[in-house]
Amino acid sequence: MTRRALVTGACSGLGAAAVDRLRADGLKVITLDRVDAADLQVDVTDDVAMREAIAAAGPFDVLVTSAGIVGPNAPLIDTDDAGWRRVWEVNVLGTVSALRAVAPGMIERGWGRIVTIASMAGKDGNPGLSAYSATKAAVIATTKAFGKELATTGVLVNAIAPAVIDTPMNATTSPEVLERITNLIPMKRVGRADEVAELISWLASERVSFSTGAVYDISGGRATY
């Protein structure tokens, strides 16, 4: 049986790398993004559209929630509510929307693999990226909670927390912030999207069987806990 995967935020960066790697593993991958190139052209913040599109395209055995934005690049006191709301809607509510739409079918069939994309910022907090850091911390906590809720269902839910990865998302990160967080990496380089995709591949497979509600760092040594 060919496993079917859904990848959100699938047309660039980590999402695109995940699509390529999962297809190389033999999965049938459906892409979801706002751009024309996606199989499902949906804004992850539109919960109704997400549910309808996923129901029509499903069922899915694997879900990778890669849609995300950086949000305000500024000290917290210089940010506003609108900036916080937008990054929260995409990074957190967009993730939750995908989970709610896909997980019930996995539970019913007794097998599934869910991989959420968090960030080292969600563990350490990156100065100048307070909203982004907060949303990625929320993704981590959501993953931990959901993994425990589904622990006996056959559906495993794990998160990945990358450090700085060479993706288009960083084009919207200020050079000063980018330099600061890159210098925190002991390997003295940024990661590659294909390196993260290898970890996604494992977490999306039958090779992982006794891990759920966990956070996997891929940080070039930056992670401290």
Could you characterize what this model shows?
With 225 residues, the protein is an alpha/beta fold. It has a single domain (4-218), classed as Rossmann fold (3-Layer(aba) Sandwich), CATH 3.40.50.720. It is 42% helix and 16% strand. The protein has helices at 13-24, 47-57, 81-109, 121-124, 130-149, 175-182, 193-203; strands at residues 4-8, 28-33, 40-41, 62-65, 112-117, 155-162, 215-218. Strands 3-2-1-4-5-6-7 form a seven-stranded parallel sheet, sandwiched between helices. Helix 2 packs parallel to helix 3 (81-109). The longest helix has 29 residues, at 81-109. The radius of gyration is 16 Å and the shape is globular. Pfam families: adh_short_C2. Belongs to the short-chain dehydrogenases/reductases (SDR) family. Keywords: Oxidoreductase. This is Short-chain dehydrogenase/reductase SDR. GO terms for molecular function: oxidoreductase activity, acting on the CH-OH group of donors, NAD or NADP as acceptor.
